[in-house]
From TrEMBL, chains A, B:
Residues 1-68 form the HTH merR-type domain. Keywords: Coiled coil, DNA-binding. Residues 74-101 form a coiled coil. This is MerR family transcriptional regulator. Gene3D superfamilies: 1.10.1660.10.
DNA sequence: CTTGCCTCTGACATGGATGTGAGGTTTTAG
DNA sequence: CTAAAACCTCACATCCATGTCAGAGGCAAG
């Protein structure tokens, strides 16, 4: 499949796909004329990359983790495995942060609602 | 307290504090000579702002929520309350995403560990 | 062959929070 | 009084994923 189709099927812009390649996160076969061709599995790979970006990882960080994902049995994955565990911890911490933040929002909303009700009682009176 | 102390106590750069003010998220009393002065409570406010930034909200979004937080009983908080509920939903969705991503990382790590063990058996043999 | 769409490279633009530096005033400590 | 440290404003720089545009080539259908 060519880049346009991969873009459509993964919901990522053509521009971004080229960028991922530039960052070493995605590879492609080139036709004699230089056009990129992708395998079916690349759709899922791109979705995975998107997921990591959404989780706040940078291209560089993702690049460091990929050896672990791509060839999980090579010895270079020892370092990648550590790196991955480290990112997992960061992610967990971030999730905890967000849960806390959500609680704060809930508290603020509850307070606001109480205030609003109080105001409405005044209006009703 | 002056801006340097607030920065130190909240762990945010002086630059950022001025930026928050510029974005309407933080206010300060000015001394006759123009220096900013803050109240004790502003430390916590800045921490809260940081939290919202970390949760991925933009200055503009935070600004829209603040009426709700600052004066929970005014009528302008009706819109802010909706906005807030909306952001809360986004946040929940994001958290769910992150949990899923963490699961994927866990799966990748498990696979990598299996591969590594297999390799080590080879070495041992 | 031509028209239209897709792709290529390369480069510049964007947005948002923050860093950084210049040039000048205020505050504080000795 | 003086020197150091903190503050002021203004403006330009940075990072990073993307958008966007220009100019050129590739490829299928009429």
């Amino acid at each position: 499949m060519r880049i346009g189709e991969l873009a459509r099927r993964s919901g990522v812009s053509v521009r971004s796909l080229r960028y991922y390649e530039e960052q070493g996160l995605l590879t492609s076969e080139r036709s004699p004329s230089g056009q990129r061709h992708y395998a079916e599995g690349d759709v899922e790979r791109v979705l995975f990359l998107q997921r990591l970006y959404t989780a706040g990882l940078s291209s560089r960080t993702i690049h460091e983790l990929l050896p672990c994902v791509d060839s999980p049995s090579l010895e270079n994955s020892r370092a990648a495995l550590e790196r991955m565990a480290q990112e997992r911890e960061k992610l967990s911490a971030h999730i905890a942060e967000l849960l806390h933040t959500r609680d704060l929002l809930d508290a603020a909303m509850a307070a606001a609602r109480r205030g609003k009700e109080c105001l409405e009682e005044h209006e009703a009176a």
